[in-house]
Amino acid sequence: MGRFVLTPAAKADLAEIAQFIRQRGSSEAAKRVGRELRQEMRRLADMPGMGHLREDVADESLRFWAVYSYLIVYRPDTRPLQIIRVVHGARDIPTVLEGDRGG
Questions:
Q1: What is the separation of C-alpha 53 from the centre of its chain, rounded to a whole number of angstroms?
Q2: Of 25, 26, 48, 79, which is least packed with CB atoms within 10 Å of its CB?
């Protein structure tokens, strides 16, 4: 399967997601969601064109892929695939990404 790298922000996102789910009482669910997010990241690394453009949120250099209620935000033209953020879809995505535009 494909290779990917996580930005520091994406690593922090994954830790926050796991903590949030564990606090709601389910360590097993936190592990399952983490595994599935990473599985989808490997899949995206193999087929980076799978993701969707979101012109309402970001320019064409970023793509988005939904897993549960989360969006994996990545740069499809990077090798290994660069995962920029992993955020809940209900968040204000343009504001979240504002600090990540530099790379």
A1: 14
A2: 25
Residue 58 has pLDDT above 70, yes or no: yes
Q: How confident is the prediction for the chain on average, in pLDDT?
A: 91
Place of tokens 């899949």: 43
Whether the CB-CB separation of 61 and 73 falls below 8 Å is answered with no
Query: Which structural domains are found in the chain, ordered by start?
Result: 4-98 (3.30.2310.20)
What's the whole-model pTM score? 0.90
Of 103, 13, 8, 12, which Cα lies nearest the Cα of 59? Answer: 103
Strands 81-88 and 70-75: antiparallel
Q: List pLDDT tens digits, range 8-25.
A: 999 999 999 999 999 998
> How far is residue 85's CA from residue 16's CA, in Å, rounded to a whole number?
12
Angle, helices 27-46 vs 8-23, to 10°: value is 150
H-helix or E-strand containing 81?
strand 81-88
